[in-house]
Design a protein that fits this description.
Number of helices: 4
Transmembrane segments: 196-216
Region (Disordered): 225-268
Biased composition (Low complexity): 239-250
Distance between the termini: 67 Å
Strand content: 15-25%
Family: Belongs to the SURF1 family.
Shape: elongated
Order of helices and strands: HEHEEEEEEHEH
Radius of gyration: 38 Å
Biased composition (Basic and acidic residues): 252-261
Length: 268
């Protein structure tokens, strides 16, 4: 049973490896694609899906700083800090969340001391599309008092009262230029990850479980055979020969100093 569970876990890791390779192929294709208008890339459904992740899109609109959200507990290149997400209002009445950049945390501050102001008027952004972040059962994607932990389009739309795209855009280039206080973001990690080696480990554990079962089963069988052998029995592979049988009637355990079964002295 243990070996079967290990085999299934190994197969699951290989399945995850296949999924990762497929996702990497899509990411490479999206990174190589030329910039295109946001509406053209995403389509009328306005949902950034797996097929759009890391695709370069362009969009023009006006920032609404009154509905800006500070993302807490963010890390970029192993540095803790904050990300500033501001809705960009589009001409058709919809809006898209724009991650304007990263602000490193100074000391133990719980919020950035200053946030660069948004440009006034119309801005044009070229950036990478990202899917909405989801944290399972946590509510970190819902802004509370202007802060959140995750960037989630539907949750932000409900909290901010906007018709938002499901997904967001990180800034690569902005016209007018973005504030230099903002730090950029690294690109995606495109590798196979540890899944293949995890699969090998699970298969190795399965072999250990099978080997242990065989070993202890044989040990139990040998133990039963030893217990079943009579005292003084000698195997066929050597050892002392049994003593020659004494002549006369077999000793049945009656000695001269014991009473005979018929009540006599034990002597005939």
């Amino acid at each position: 049973m243990l070996a079967g569970a290990c085999v299934q876990l190994g197969r699951w890791q290989l399945h995850r490896l296949d999924e990762r390779k497929t996702r990497n192929d899509v990411t490479r294709s999206n990174l190589a694609a030329p910039p295109a208008p946001l509406a053209e890339v995403v389509g009328p459904q306005r949902v950034v899906g797996d097929q759009h992740d890391w695709r370069t899109a362009t969009v023009t609109g006006r920032y609404d700083a009154t509905k800006q959200v500070v993302l807490r507990y963010r890390n970029v290149r192993d540095k803790p800090g904050f990300e500033i997400v501001t809705p960009l209002m589009l001409d058709d009445g919809s809006a898209v969340l724009v991650d304007r950049g990263f602000l490193p945390r100074q000391g133990g501050q719980l919020a950035p001391s200053t946030i660069p102001a948004v440009p006034s008027g119309e801005v044009t952004i070229t950036g990478r599309l990202r899917r909405s972040e989801r944290g399972g059962r946590t509510s970190g994607g819902t802004p509370v008092d202007g802060t959140a932990r995750l960037i989630n389009g539907p949750a932000f739309a409900s909290a901010l009262g906007l018709n938002l795209y499901d997904g967001y855009l990180t800034v690569d280039q902005q016209v007018p230029a973005a504030d230099p206080a903002f730090g950029g973001f690294p690109g995606p990690e495109i590798d196979d990850g540890p899944h293949f080696f995890y699969a090998l480990q699970w298969f190795f554990f399965a072999m250990l479980a099978i080997g242990g079962l065989v070993y202890f089963s044989r040990r139990d069988v040998n133990g039963d055979e030893t217990a079943a052998a009579p005292d003084g029995a000698v195997g066929s592979e050597g050892g002392p020969e049994p003593a020659a049988a004494a002549s006369g009637p077999a000793d049945r355990g009656l000695r001269a100093d014991r009473g005979h079964p018929d009540g006599g002295a034990g002597l005939d």
